[in-house]
């Protein structure tokens, strides 16, 4: 998933580009040009049409998926959903939500995903663990080069939900994440004047940005899931989303 961080001016570029793709594809869906069940243009076509990188297109597709507009079949492509207007949670996620509404969505995710993490710790397969590890590696790589991390962030949370073996965790997560997923690299954080050892779920003093903090929190969740420890996985995810809520409040809900 996913967290929300304050946005610096120099990190806005990936967000504005991906939003342009989202707006363009959404308009084509709303106008009927892309009908339910039809295939969204593939990544190379969208890259050429909008003059953006592959990572920007993937972030845009992730948002479209989170908004309940498309469904992606790995290795096949993304397809327009027939029921996007019938899903009130997806419609809510698409709206320009107020801070209170976004925080309410995060509260729901805190309960939902904490339990999902506990179930994933009991049910995950080696292949699912490898996929989650790959998502975190992509998150780190994209952050290190200043690219948007939303696609990798959402993919990690979605893969964890899939590891529960309960499709409804995935469906609800997709409906909610559009409004609360991270949008770009976070701004540097001020270091404490009196460093001390970090407690569970607390960022170490050396972390430089909200994205570094998010990466550490994701890693704590994955480590607990890999160990097969439901209680630890639940606590790690709850702490991650609690911190995400606090970061959202500090950023004014942006």
According to CATH, the homologous superfamily is GntR ligand-binding domain-like
Structural class: mainly alpha
CATH class: Mainly Alpha
Shape: globular
Q: Major sheet: size, sense and barrel closure?
A: 2 strands, antiparallel
CATH architecture designation: Up-down Bundle
Number of domains: 1
Task: List low-confidence stretches.
Answer: 1-15, 182-198, 201-207
Instruction: Tally the helices.
Output: 10
Question: Span from first to last CA?
Answer: 16 Å
What is the oligomeric state here?
A: single chain
At the third CATH level, what is the topology name? Answer: Four Helix Bundle (Hemerythrin (Met), subunit A)
Number of strands: 2
Q: State which percent range the strand residues make up.
A: under 5%
What percentage of residues falls in helices of 4 or more residues?
Answer: 55-70%
| Spatial strand order of the main sheet | 1-2
Mean pLDDT over the residues: 79
């Amino acid at each position: 998933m996913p967290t929300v961080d304050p946005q610096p001016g120099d990190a806005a570029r990936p967000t504005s580009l991906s939003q342009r793709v989202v707006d363009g594809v959404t308009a084509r869906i709303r106008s009927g040009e892309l009908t339910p069940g039809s295939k969204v243009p593939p990544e190379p076509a969208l890259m050429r049409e909008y003059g953006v990188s592959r990572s920007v297109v993937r972030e845009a597709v992730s948002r479209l998926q989170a908004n309940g507009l498309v469904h992606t079949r790995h290795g096949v492509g993304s397809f327009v959903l027939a029921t996007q207007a019938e899903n009130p949670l997806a419609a809510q996620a698409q709206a320009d939500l107020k801070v209170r509404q976004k925080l309410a969505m995060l509260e729901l995710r805190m309960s939902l995903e904490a339990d999902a993490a506990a179930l994933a710790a009991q049910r995950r397969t080696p292949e699912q663990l490898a996929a989650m590890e790959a998502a975190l590696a992509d998150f780190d790589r994209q952050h290190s080069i200043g690219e948007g991390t939303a696609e990798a962030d959402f993919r990690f949370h979605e893969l964890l939900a899939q590891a529960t073996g309960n499709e409804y965790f995935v469906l609800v997560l997709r409906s909610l994440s559009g409004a609360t997923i991270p949008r770009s690299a976070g701004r540097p954080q001020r270091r404490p004047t009196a460093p001390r050892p970090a407690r569970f779920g607390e960022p170490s003093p050396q972390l430089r940005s909200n994205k570094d903090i998010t990466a550490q929190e994701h890693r704590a969740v994955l480590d607990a899931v890999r160990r097969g420890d439901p209680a630890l996985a639940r606590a790690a995810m709850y702490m991650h989303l609690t911190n995400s809520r606090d970061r959202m409040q500090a950023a004014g809900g942006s």
